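Minutes, project check-in
Item: structure for the 574-residue chain
Input as provided by the requester:
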Amino acid sequence: MTALLLLLAMAQAPQRDVRVAPAAATGTIKGVVTTADAQPRPLRRVRVTVTGPAVQPPRVFVTGDEGTFVFDRIPAGRVTLMAAKDGYVTMNYGAPRPGRPGTMVQLAGSQTIDLALRLPRGAVIAGTITDVDGLPAAGVQVVALTSRFIGASGERHLVPAPVPYRCSTDDRGMYRIYGLAAGEYTISAQSQQRAVGPAVPEVRTFTDGRVGAQPLASAIVFYPGTTDLAQARRFTLSAGEERAGIDLQMQYVPLATVSGVVPVTANGAPRYVTMTHLGEIAGVEQTRDARVEPDGRFVFVSIPPGSYMVIARPVPASEPGTTNGAPTAAPSQWFTAPVVVEGQDVTVALSPQPTLSISGRLEFAGSHPPPDVSRLRLPSLNATQTIGTYMLPLPQVQMEAGGRFTVSGILPGPYRVGVFANRGLPGIRTPIGPWWVKSLIVNGRDLLDAPLDLREGTDAAVATLSDEASKVSGTVRNVSGTAAPDTTVVIFTTDRGGWFFNSRRVVGLRADRDGRYAVWNLPPGDYRIVASTDLDQGEWFDPSTLDRLLADAGSITVTGVEQQSRDLVIRDRP
C-alpha cells in the first residue's frame, strides 16, 4: 500500500520545467542582380553568395530569369554578399568598383532586407601566341597584368589582375582572357615549364646535324614582344570591350653560369648565397639560392639575361634569432656584388659591405615617472630593405643599462616599415605602455619625418617618448545620418614631403561597426581629412591616391596634444 501511495504521489507531482534552447534569430535577404549598363536589365544564372561569421559554410543562390534571389533563415548578424557570372565582373555588395571588399550588411532577427547588385560587363583580351619559328604555340600560359599599389611594399607593380586573369593557348596558339574589369593592362606569355618554378629548362638548337653549344631557354615575353618588363606596352580597356590582336612571339634567350667565391670568415663560409633579379621584373622572377662550399665557392646555372644582385652574409657564432628569449648577435659584414648577365658566363667576386651601428639614449617626458628601461619592451619596427625580391630585416633593438639602446649590424640603405593595419606603428599609432614616440634624432635629423634611409652610424641618437598625445576622433555617417561602418578614414599632411610609405603624418584606418574612428599622436601641423569606401589596405600611402582624395577632403589642424572631434559624412553607397 505504501508503495502504491508513493507511486500515486509521484504521478500527481508537477513535472519540472524542461528548458528548450531558444531558436536562433534569423532574417531574410532578397534582391535583384542587373547589368551595370545605362539601361540595366536583369541577369539570370548569377551566383550570389552570402557569408558571415554565423553563415558557415557560405550559402549560394542562382538567380532566375528575373535576376532575383532570396536567402531565408539567415542567422542575424553581419554578412557579405558577392555576385559572379561568367563574362561579367565579380562584384561585392557595396563595393564602388571591382576588387574592393564592399559593405557588410547588418541583419536583425525577423528582418527582411532588399538589395540590388549590378555587374559590369567583363572586358576581353584575345590574340595568338607563336613560337620562335612563327608557328602556333600550344599550351603557353598567358597572364593579364595590371598596375596595383602593394601595401606590403609601398610601391606600384605590375601584378596579375584579379581572377580570371590567365589562360593557356589552344592548338591554334590562340588565347582569350575574359571577365576583366575596365582598366589598364598588359600581357605576358611563358611556357608552362617556366611557370612551375624558378628552374629554367634548357633547350639547344640543332643546326647542320649538330647540337648547339649555347644553352637557351624560353623567355617570359611581354606585349608587344619584349623580354624587358620596363618596355612592356600597356593599353586601356573599357567595360565590355574586346581587344583582339594582342599577339606575341615566343623568344629564346641565352643562358649563362654565374660563379664566384665569398670570403670565409672566422665562423666559416655562409651556407647559401642568394641571387635576386633587379628592376620591375623582380615581381615576376623568383630569387635563387646556391649552396656555398666550405672554401666559399658557389655556382648558379641557367641564368637568363638581366641585372642581378648576389648577396651573402657571414654566419655569426649563432644564427640570428633568439636564444633563451634574447636576440642573438647580428653579423658584422654583408657581402654583395652586382651582376649583369648577357648570355656569357660570369665570374663574380663578392666584396664586403661594412655595416653600421646606431646607439643612443631614451628620454621621457610627462607626468609618469620614467620606466625601468631594462624592463621596457621595445617592439621591433619590422623594417626591411628590399633588394629585388630579397627582404633584408632591420636588426633588433638591444636595450642597455642606463637607458641606452643599440641597433647594430645594419646594412646601409633604404628600409621600409611594414604596414600594421589599424594598430599603426608601435609607439607612433599605439602606445608602448603609456608612452608615445615623439622623435628619433640621428645626426641632427628626425628619422620619423622622412623615409627610413640609414646611411650613417652614430652613438649619439636620442629617442624621445612622452605620455601625452594628440587625438582626432569622430563618427562617419551617410547623408541620411546613419552610421557608415567599414569606411576608411584618411588623415594626411598638407606637406607633400610627408607623403611617403608609412609616414607618421599619413594615417588610414577602418571605422568600426558603429562608424567610429580615433587617430592618436599626430604631430603638430596642417592636415586634410576624408572618408572613403574605395581604398585597399595601405593605398593611402600612394601619392596618386592622396591627390585623388584632396577634392573631397576637409581641413584640420593639430597644434599639440589636444583632443578634437571631427564627424565625417560620406555619400550613400549602392
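Outcome recorded: Residues 471-570 form a domain with the Immunoglobulin-like fold (CATH 2.60.40.1120).
No further action items on this chain.
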